[in-house]
Amino acid sequence: MALLKVLLLLLGLGVSMNSHVSLHKRIIGGQNCNDTERLYHVRLEGNNGTHMRLCGGSLIHRQWILTAAHCWKSEPGWTTTAKLGVHPRTATQEKQIIQHNPVIYVNKWHYRHDIMLLKLQRPVRNIRPVRLPRCNNRITIGATVQLAGEGSTTTSPNNSRSLSASLPPHLQCVDMKVTGFFFTITSGHEFFAEAQNTDVYFGDSGGGVVFNKKIVGVISGRGKNFVFRNPVFNMDVCDYLEWIRNTTGLNKPKIS
């Protein structure tokens, strides 16, 4: 199982193409997200002038975005732009180039887990961040969670993954059942989610997994070549909550 997990994570790292676009996971088999929800969804675009990498993210603080660590490109020449207000499409969009170094979770054994915080240059005033979970009553197997993302909603023949770069006219949401939990020292705390004829697709990595209007997970890696074959792996926010709070200052008691 550990070997399978490593292979799936490697496959989930995305692709680079000479057609100017490199994409991560995308939602298929979902539906249009409600226009009054997911306003905190962030589109992350990495660009080096010839290639682009697309990911999702969630505004969890006026100045912080929670996303997947593999969405960051550290090679020279790459810039990452956060686009806020992408949902609904009628909202006023705001763009900020990420200038601060990313904060990626590293455990005591020096392994990086696929969860990351990005700090914005200036606070976002017109979008309410998504709330963090309390984690005193955590999700269990059988719970229904909602994932969201942008990108193609169809597949190529034989359920192979299309590399179409077009964005859908509407943010896509999909409900899935939690089917298991997973932990290794190297990859961290994750939970599986799946539903019949639904999947994440290229471009969705880093997007938020929501339960009771709180963010409980971050979409991580999984196989990229064919859809409907494996559950979706999601980083379990509750196991990183202290790190998130210490980094962002969220929910810390004020000292008078």
Describe the structure.
With 256 residues, the chain is mainly beta. The chain has 2 helices and 15 strands. The chain has helices at residues 2-11, 241-248, and strands spanning 22-23, 31-32, 41-47, 52-61, 64-67, 79-84, 94-97, 103-106, 112-119, 144-149, 172-184, 188-194, 208-211, 214-219, 232-236. Strands 1, 3, 4, 5, 6, 7, 8 and 9 form an 8-stranded mixed sheet that branches. It starts with a helix and ends in an 8-residue tail after the last helix. Residues 1-26 and 157-163 have low confidence and may be disordered.
Rg estimate, integer Å: 17 Å
- Please state the structural category: mainly beta
The coarse silhouette is globular
Number of strands: 15
Oligomer: single chain
N- to C-terminal distance? 50 Å
- Specify the biggest β-sheet: 8 strands, mixed
Proportion of residues in helical segments: under 10%
Low-confidence stretches: 1-26, 157-163
Overall pLDDT: 83
What are the secondary-structure elements, in order, as H or E? Answer: HEEEEEEEEEEEEEEEH
Q: What count of helical segments does DSSP give?
A: 2
**Strand fraction:** 25-35%
Distinctive features:
256 residues; 8-stranded mixed sheet; 6-stranded antiparallel β-barrel; 7% helix; disordered N terminus
Give a short summary of the structure.
The chain is mostly beta strands.
Topology:
Elements: H1 2-11, E1 22-23, E2 31-32, E3 41-47, E4 52-61, E5 64-67, E6 79-84, E7 94-97, E8 103-106, E9 112-119, E10 144-149, E11 172-184, E12 188-194, E13 208-211, E14 214-219, E15 232-236, H2 241-248
Parallel strand pairs: 1-4
Antiparallel strand pairs: 2-11, 3-4, 3-6, 4-5, 5-9, 6-7, 8-9, 10-11, 10-13, 11-12, 12-15, 13-14, 14-15
